[in-house]
Structure to design on (201 residues):
């Protein structure tokens, strides 16, 4: 009988694709995370409030350790996205992706993602999203996945649509953007792994 206590759910700490490794947060990754965040900072500033802070290596290490704790407690399932080397080992850390706003009783999870601009345009974010969705509908027994994004974030919206998420609604004046102005939120949803589209195929 599957457990309903999320702390007892076996969540994979490593997801593999043909080009990527998604690894759960771990102590000691601060320098790699710091470099990736600094590389992506200007690219992410229009959308991510945390990108407006320039972290030290020590602060990035603290973030990784907090994320590790939240992962173990099943509060936020963040993964750091690495390029996969030819031998299968983890290469450069180039972004992050994960599941948050975890509604375990409903089995509804929200997905988020970011990547360094040097690695955009290659379908890597879509590859990470497909891996996360398969994991969510597999061992996590998802009934619903969501991607919520600012309506003006065309890159994020394109990822959701390429992977088979359906635009279910537009919430007008739903949130404050990074400038403190009202913005609209697009809600994309998926309720079955059969809706998932792998753009690499």
């Amino acid at each position: 009988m599957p457990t309903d206590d999320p702390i007892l759910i076996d969540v994979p700490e490593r997801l593999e694709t043909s080009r990527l490794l998604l690894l759960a947060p771990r102590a000691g990754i601060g320098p790699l995370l710091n470099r990736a965040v600094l590389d992506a900072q200007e690219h992410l500033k229009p959308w991510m409030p945390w990108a407006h802070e320039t972290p030290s290596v020590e602060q990035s290490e603290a973030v990784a350790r907090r994320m590790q704790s939240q992962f173990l407690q099943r509060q936020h399932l963040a993964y750091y996205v690495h390029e996969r080397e030819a031998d299968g080992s983890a290469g450069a850390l180039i972004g992050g992706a994960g599941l948050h706003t975890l509604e375990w009783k409903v089995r509804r999870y929200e997905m988020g993602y970011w990547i360094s601009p040097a690695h955009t345009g290659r379908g890597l974010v879509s590859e990470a999203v497909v891996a996360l969705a398969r994991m969510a509908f597999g061992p996590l027994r998802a009934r619903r996945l969501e991607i919520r994004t600012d309506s003006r974030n065309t890159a994020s919206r394109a990822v959701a649509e390429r992977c088979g998420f359906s635009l279910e609604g537009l919430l007008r004046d739903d949130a404050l953007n990074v400038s403190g102005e009202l913005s609209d939120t697009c809600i994309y949803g998926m309720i079955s792994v059969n809706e998932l589209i792998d753009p690499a195929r």
Observations:
- DSSP finds four helices and eight strands in the chain.
- The two ends are 35 Å apart (CA to CA).
- The domain at 6-145 is CATH 3.40.630.30 (Aminopeptidase).
